[in-house]
Amino acid sequence: MKVLDRIFMTFLLLVLLAVCVFTVLFSLGVLPLTGVTGVLIAFDGNWVYKIIAIVVSILLFVLILKVLFHRSTHKQDDGRVGSSMRQLIKLSENVSMTSEAVCSIIQKAAKADGKVNEVECSVNLEADGAFAVRIKAAMADGVNIPQAAAEMDARVKESLLNYCGIENVKTNLVIGN
Q1: Which of 3, 15, 52, 86 has a 20 to 30 A CA-CA distance from 158?
Q2: What is the DSSP letter of 44?
């Protein structure tokens, strides 16, 4: 999430918290309803309050729409949000690793030589026991793509063997922007 999105989310949550607190206080009779009507009457004659209320309402509406239609960055080929991002990968009898941790190792290995700018990956355990690793990478300008892809593939497999003990790896490299 971007910084601006986090600020908007925090603002939205604070506004919702304030609405909830005031609703409870009005329901319990701690705050009289005459206070609410007094505030609403103040809005009636003051254009500054009206403009502030309209701007805040529009911001909240846009933020709510953004939250409702937010998409995850981790998707599988068929468009579904990847359940592979939440699975545990069993490395031995008593050692498991999250697929996020494995993807982190893959991303570091892929970017190690500086020829790769961005990397997204997913890891799935196939029925035959092999690990299917899908890597989507964006290469730097002026790079020999077939050579860099082969080097990246070898580094990823070597890193998975060295750090995780995973030997049976099937990689699917997708080079794009």
Answers
A1: 86
A2: H
β-sheet bridge partners, residue 171: 133
**Long-range Cβ contact pairs of 101-107 (< 8 A, separation 24 or more):** 102/160, 102/164, 102/166, 105/159, 105/160, 105/163, 105/164, 106/133, 106/135, 106/156, 106/159, 106/160
State which H helix or E strand residue 83 sits in.
none
Q: What does the pLDDT look like over 149-160, one tens digit per residue? A: 999 999 999 999
Residue 113 has φ and ψ, to the nearest 5°, of -95, 0
Residue 117 phi/psi, 5-degree rounding, is -90, -50
**Cα angle at 29 between 50 and 52, to 5 degrees?**
10
